[in-house]
Design a protein that fits this description.
The radius of gyration is 27 Å and the shape is elongated. The protein starts with a helix and ends in an 8-residue tail after the last helix. α8 links the parallel β2 and β3. It has 306 residues and is mainly α.
């Protein structure tokens, strides 16, 4: 941030001021992200039985708002400068400083995104995307500054700044969209597909179907609740054992740490035509259909015979 403001004071370029102003947002958002990571790592307690992970969505929301507002202010400032242009000085020196800050932000952003995938942290992901956005806008700025330097067309300075402002607004919108979806417990079908890939590959014949599957993210943890249809004559210990195996299967396959709430449903005669269980003593008809679990049938709130 200090480097970019130094470049602005050297050049008086509106486009560089745009980049510097976004760096203020970077610093504020990173400070909030730092506290959010600390808070989301706190253990569950009586007041927060699902943990503190939801604060990560709020942190992403704040970061998205800050980015969005920065983009709007940049466009207004650049529009004014387009009508009342000012002289730009020492562009080459300013361009070198912006290029260096862009490289730093690019590698830091890539590092944060890589770490976010390892720890499943939305805060690190949002901050990493923010820094990559800053790096890409700096790259565009360098190209634009060089064009101004060689053409001496100073109107390009404000035009470039407006384009950067629009790009920043777009990235702010994407973070806001993702954060609101998480706060409203929007289903993540990528997570559902990953879970089903493991379950289909390790499916027990006694797991007749899975339905009403819902996912909720709580920071670096995942909560899933679903209904599992089992043979109705299984005694309670056997039911508990089957359900525990589903929980263990997901949590031991390199997946996100997952908390399962599983409701066991008894099978009905209508399930027999797609039940895989061999030697079932109460089967009323032979198996004529084999159903692969997909997001379409496991997320519906009824058994698969309907």
């Amino acid at each position: 941030m200090l480097g970019k403001f130094t470049a602005y004071f050297i050049t008086s370029s509106n486009a560089i001021l745009t980049d510097a102003a976004e760096s203020i947002v970077n610093v504020l958002a990173s400070a909030f992200a730092f506290y959010s990571i600390y808070l989301s790592a706190q253990p569950k307690d009586l007041n927060h039985p699902y943990g503190h992970g939801k604060v990560e969505f709020f942190s992403m929301f704040v970061e998205g708002i800050l980015i969005f507002l920065a983009g709007v202010l940049i466009i207004f400032k650049s529009g004014y400068s387009l009508l009342f242009p000012s002289i730009v000085n020492d562009l080459f020196d300013g361009t070198i400083i912006i290029a260096v800050t862009g490289f730093i932000n690019f590698f830091l952003g890539k590092t944060l995104i890589r770490e976010s995938k390892i720890s499943n942290s939305l805060v690190l992901y949002a901050d990493g995307k923010h820094l990559l956005t800053d790096a890409y806008s700096s790259a565009g700025l360098v190209i634009g500054l060089l064009a101004i330097y060689f053409t001496q067309n100073y109107y390009l300075d404000s035009i470039l700044s407006i384009l950067m402002g629009l790009y920043i607004i777009y990235n702010g919108y994407k973070l806001l969209r993702k954060s609101v979806g998480g706060l409203m417990d929007e289903s993540d079908f990528k997570v559902v597909n990953d879970v089903l890939k493991i379950l289909n590959a390790n499916r027990h014949d006694s797991w007749i179907d899975i339905h009403n599957l819902r996912t909720q993210s709580y920071g670096h943890e995942l909560h899933i609740d679903c209904h599992v249809t089992l043979p109705y004559y299984y005694e309670l210990n056997k039911v508990h054992d089957e359900i525990s195996q589903i929980d263990t299967l997901i949590n031991q396959n390199g997946f996100v740490r997952t908390e399962f709430f599983i409701h066991a449903d008894p099978c009905l005669p209508q399930c027999c035509h797609y039940c895989r269980l061999q030697g079932c003593p109460v089967r009323t008809e032979v198996q004529t259909k084999d159903i692969t679990w997909t997001p379409d049938n496991v997320t519906r709130n009824h058994k698969h015979y309907k």
